[in-house]
Amino acid sequence: MSGTYLGMPAFPAAAASSTQDARLRANLRYATHTIRDKRAKAVAELDDWARLRAAGAAVKDRTLRHLDHYLEQLEESVAAAGGQVHWAADAAEANAIVARLVRETGEREVVKVKSMATQETGLNRALAEAGITAYETDLAELIVQLGDDLPSHILVPAIHRNRGEIRDIFRERMGRWGRPAPEGLSDAPGELAEAARLHLREKFLDAKVGISGANFMVAETGTLVVVESEGNGRMCLTLPETLISVVGIEKVVPTWQDLEIFLQLLPRSSTAERMNPYTSMWTGTTDGDGPRTFHLVLLDNGRTDTLADTVGRQALRCIRCSACLNVCPVYERAGGHAYGSAYPGPIGAILTPQLRGTASELDASLPYASSLCGACYEVCPVAIDIPEVLVHLRERVVQGGKVTRRGVKTVLKPAKGHAAERAAMRAAGFAFDHPGVLRAGQRLAGRTRRLHPRRLPGPGHAWSDTRDLPPVPAESFRDWWRRTRGEERGK
Amino acid sequence: MRVALFVTCINDTLHPDTGRAVITLLERLGVEVGFPEEQSCCGQPQYNTGYRHLTEPLVRRFDRAFRDYDYVVTPSGSCAAMVRDNYPRIAERAAAEGRDGRDLADAAASAVPKTYELTEFLVDVLKVTDVGAYYPHTVTYHPTCHGLRMLRLGDRPRRLLEHVKGLELRELPGAEECCGFGGTFAVKNAAVSAAMGADKVRAVRETGAEAVCTVDNSCLLHIGGMLRREGAAARPVHIAEILAATEATTKAGAREPAGTEGSRR
């Protein structure tokens, strides 16, 4: 791992190796089961959860339908409050804008509050290339950064690490980035947190530039909202002189009244908290209070294209709570890195192939990284029907079809490597639509059943490596019916 | 009331015992059951793998096969969910693609309200929970994902099992977690599927039950295949075969209980 998802293998190959990592499996099982049980209790406390969820989905849908209007309203509100708005069509443009804004301050270091959007654009790497060092201040992001690692979870980026591993990373790496870990650091949670506090405190006090994302942007007032639970966000948002926020365009909500819904849905879904611990809100700039300069970089990077897809667009409702990761049996076994994106888990499996397209082998494999068990849809606080979108994207992979790329409608070709499957599906389709052919096939299988191998050759070994084959009965149901009951009357 | 069995392609080909059990059970409850031979597959494997267009002829075929019936009963949660959740969607998408989706919409409108998974039909339509079954074994019940989350079967299967004489129900730890089958997922992501299956099989073995029961043979294909590979004593049994068993059939010939003979050997 070296801070980039580029060149990673397709999901099945990555997962085949991560499922063999016993420590990773144990870390993930413990963490996801703990948080999923807590979430279930926190959600069960509210009688009106189903209505809140429906309201959240409806507000997001309405806003997305009129996204152009609300974004322009937001731009006006932010400008009126003393902020400057920049529009970034893609990751490269967003990174270039941020690097330029930082250079213009004359600073060479920035502090960051955890932001999915800047993970998505690979901002830290772009800043490093521009000679700017970005310090992550979220505890888990700090662990990931010090370990030269990649995040594996939306909310808990170091969920794949246990306490012992974190202690080792702190001991070995903290000194290279700033204040070293205290002598004799143990793996007690309190000691680890204190080491991080001491290390980060220096960064907060020195920083002149802060970089953030945002969970929500309120169009009517131009207010940005960051929801976090460590207080590092509050530091990054208030102490620096310049604040630069990089936010996906789908994060806008029309009014404060709408915000009320999401500030109930998000904490219970993500951390199982009734109320979020640190909710920071700011509107442009205020003399003598917080940053003097505020820049908002609005990021598209495939979102408008996603919006053009009537089935897939519901993925843009996502409020990044990560409840779907915590209930996903596939995520629990494969781990977040196998998804090769800042967005792992079920939401990543539908978001990444839409934002990045399905051209790479990895991105084309993501829609299949699910057993379609539906647990994700059930817990999603904005009712994204993830299985529906997964199946829709599978269709895009095997059949191609109309998509929008950078605002232009084009027709995708089917992905490579599905020719044999397509032929098999067509043959099965033919047999199922010609019951005489189906019956002949069943009889052939029944007569030859003593000759069937215990293990399958070729691609079939994927089944028979771990499971016995079902024995084929001598007689199919339809043959039994015909033999014992005769032709169905009237048919 | 004209009732048809939609046996499903997997049961037809690999588990005819399950289909026979549904016939036995429903006839014992006084229901006359037909089997229109025009039926084949609901289209779920194709649909869920991304071949939606290949399912369209099967939607029309389903409707043709069952048009004259008031109820279509199927011993499969996921095939019932395919009809109810996805048939209307298939029609909508065809229309959205500028094709005439009216025949598909008609087919869906006819199929959706009358299609019932077996335990739904027993509890909601026939309004029975005691079907007079006898099955003197320890059983653990795995609620399949599509039964649990798409059909919302709730406690229907459990209520039926609780009324089976001689049956002792054992709680399955982590029951609501997917077994890892997932159709083509089982081969496309074989490693993750096997890891999920291994956890499910461990949970089944922990119960000490003689049998693991579900409303779907497709999940049992995976769970049972792993149990057998491990040489475990627990065997997979479809709920229909438990509900069809009586003291008479148990004494009459079956030295072994349902699920160990015929299709599953």
Quick overview of this protein structure:
Chain A has helices spanning 11-18, 22-44, 49-65, 67-80, 91-105, 116-121, 123-129, 139-146, 163-177, 189-206, 232-238, 256-270, 303-307, 323-327, 329-334, 345-355, 361-365, 375-379, 386-399, 419-432, 435-447, 461-464, 477-485; strands at 84-88, 109-112, 133-136, 209-212, 216-218, 223-228, 242-248, 252-253, 278-283, 293-299, 401-405, 408-412. Chain A has 491 residues and is an alpha/beta fold.
How would you explain this protein's 3D organization?
The complex is a heterodimer of chains A (491) and B (265). Chain A has 491 residues and is an alpha/beta fold. Helices cover 50% and strands 12% of the residues of chain A. Chain A has 23 helices and 12 strands. In chain A, the strands form 3 sheets. Chain A has a 6-stranded parallel sheet with strand order 1-10-7-4-2-3, with helices on both faces. Chain A has a 4-stranded mixed sheet with strand order 8-5-6-9. Chain A has a two-stranded antiparallel ribbon with strand order 11-12. Chain A starts with 10 loop residues before the first helix and ends in a 6-residue tail after the last helix. Chain B has 265 residues and is of the alpha/beta class. Chain B folds into 2 domains: 3-125, no CATH class; 138-263, Rossmann fold, CATH 3.40.50. Chain B is 52% helix and 10% strand. In chain B, the strands form 2 sheets. In chain B, strands 2-1-3-4 form a 4-stranded parallel sheet, with helices on both faces. In chain B, strands 6-5-7-8 form a 4-stranded parallel sheet, sandwiched between helices. The interface between A and B is large, with 70 and 75 residues.
Task: Identify the notable features of this structure and list them briefly.
heterodimer, A: 491 residues, alpha/beta, 6-stranded parallel beta sheet, 4-stranded mixed beta sheet, 50% helix, globular, B: 265 residues, Rossmann fold, 2 domains, 4-stranded parallel beta sheet, 14 helices, 8 strands, 52% helix, disordered C terminus
